[in-house]
Design goal:
Blueprint (H helix, E strand, L loop, with lengths): L10 E11 L3 E10 L5 E5 L4
Antiparallel strand pairs: 1-2, 2-3
Bound molecules: zinc ion.
Zinc ion binds next to loops.
């Protein structure tokens, strides 16, 4: 699990979403939420 980029706290994983890049491409990312400051942040998945 990745650490929060703002407070370095623990984060929980909310699942994966596909973010559109341009008209035809997409990228899978993990959505994480920090348990301390509630920051939502994305983490790119190394795949494809
Ligand atoms: Zn945080």
């Amino acid at each position: 699990m990745s650490e929060c980029p703002r407070c370095k706290g623990k984060s929980i994983n909310l699942g994966q979403v596909t973010v559109a890049i341009g008209k035809t491409r997409g990228k899978r990312v993990n959505v994480n939420e920090c348990v301390d400051c509630k920051l939502l942040f994305y983490e790119a998945l190394e795949e494809e």
